[in-house]
Input
Amino acid sequence: MAGETVLVVDDTPVNLKLTRILLANAGFEVLTAASAEEALELLVDRHPRLILADIQLPGIDVLELTRRVRQDEKTSDIAVIGLSAFATASDEKRALDAGCAGYITKPIDTRTLAGRIRRFLDSRAQEPAALPAAPAPASPIPEDDMRSLRLRFLSDGVERARQLLAGLDGLFSADEASRVVHQWVGAAGLLGYPSITQLARELEAELAERPLDNAQLRESLTRLLGAFSDPC
Output
């Protein structure tokens, strides 16, 4: 399986880099794209065996990406696995109905991801939705890379949380805020910040409610800002 090509599609730079490192260290050739549009352009010249894509991509989402991949005879043999930080049974059904070969809920376990992908590719003939678990080896992320990614994530989190808080006093886009918070859920889990993951999940749920409760949003964002500022 070493050397097989996997395309990772995620609009969160930290997630994209960390997943690339994980899979590359496990022996895969890793291609990356920050959007479905970029992924489709890449598929013109490259033919990965598997695409690992975040469900909530901006623009063309992963469900439409999967349909296009499945409908094109040049790419129809490529398996697509969806990633979601806020999964429900209906989300999984929609992904599988669109042609996804599997579905993984974020935060991704950095210890087992490469093993799961490896075993999935070895068992393509099995039930499409079944993604076998793998033993949990030690994390293959180099310490310097992990430290750099964590620092960048926390720094960016502080800045974005402050921007969202300031936005509550003016023009506030719940959709844009939801996209940012969704990214935090997955990235925090990958980088080992479970408290940030939990706070971000709670905020994501609050942003889906209508009408928005600005007082509650302010309180939740303030807690997240504190978690980014002092994750310990």
In short: Residues 127-139 have pLDDT under 50 and may be disordered. The radius of gyration is 18 Å.
